[in-house]
Specification:
Blueprint lengths: L2 E5 L2 E3 L5 E8 L11 E7 L6 E6 L6 E3 L7 E6 L2 E6 L8 E8 L14 E2 L3 E5 L2
Parallel strand pairs: 2-11
Antiparallel strand pairs: 1-3, 3-8, 4-5, 4-9, 5-6, 7-8, 9-10, 9-11
Length: 127
């Protein structure tokens, strides 16, 4: 049973940057993080959960929602998955979640495909 714990959220002024981190643990013995597709989602008040960035399990490529391309970068460091966010705006205010699953790359931004979720970290952008 995977456990995912996010960190790095906070309050930021417009135009600022943040790096969110997701520590992943609990994988079965001999199973690496490569076994799973890994993604970041966000959910703003009153809106549906939105996939913003992911690593495809099949091809190892990164995928981004059109709304965040050029500003968000997903990266990985051993058992952590990071989300680098630049040029933040009020529209980026949301709870950000990391997730993992045995999901095919072409579905890696689809929330219903994910089995394992973190508790979320709040990002608030305001002046």
């Amino acid at each position: 049973q995977l456990q995912l714990v996010e960190s790095g959220g906070g309050s930021v002024q417009p135009g600022g940057s943040l790096r969110l981190s997701c520590a992943v643990s609990g994988a079965p013995a001999g199973v690496t993080l490569d076994y799973y597709g890994k993604a970041w989602f966000r959910q703003a008040p009153g809106k549906e959960r939105e996939g913003v960035a992911c690593f495809g399990r099949d091809d190892g490529r990164t995928y981004y929602a059109d709304s965040v391309k050029g500003r968000f970068t997903i990266s990985r460091d051993n058992a952590e998955v990071h989300l680098h966010i630049n040029n933040l705006s009020a529209d980026d205010t949301a709870v950000y979640y990391c997730a993992a699953a045995r999901v095919r790359s072409n579905y890696c931004l689809v929330s219903k495909m994910y089995d394992y979720w973190g508790q979320g970290t709040q990002v608030t952008v305001s002046s």
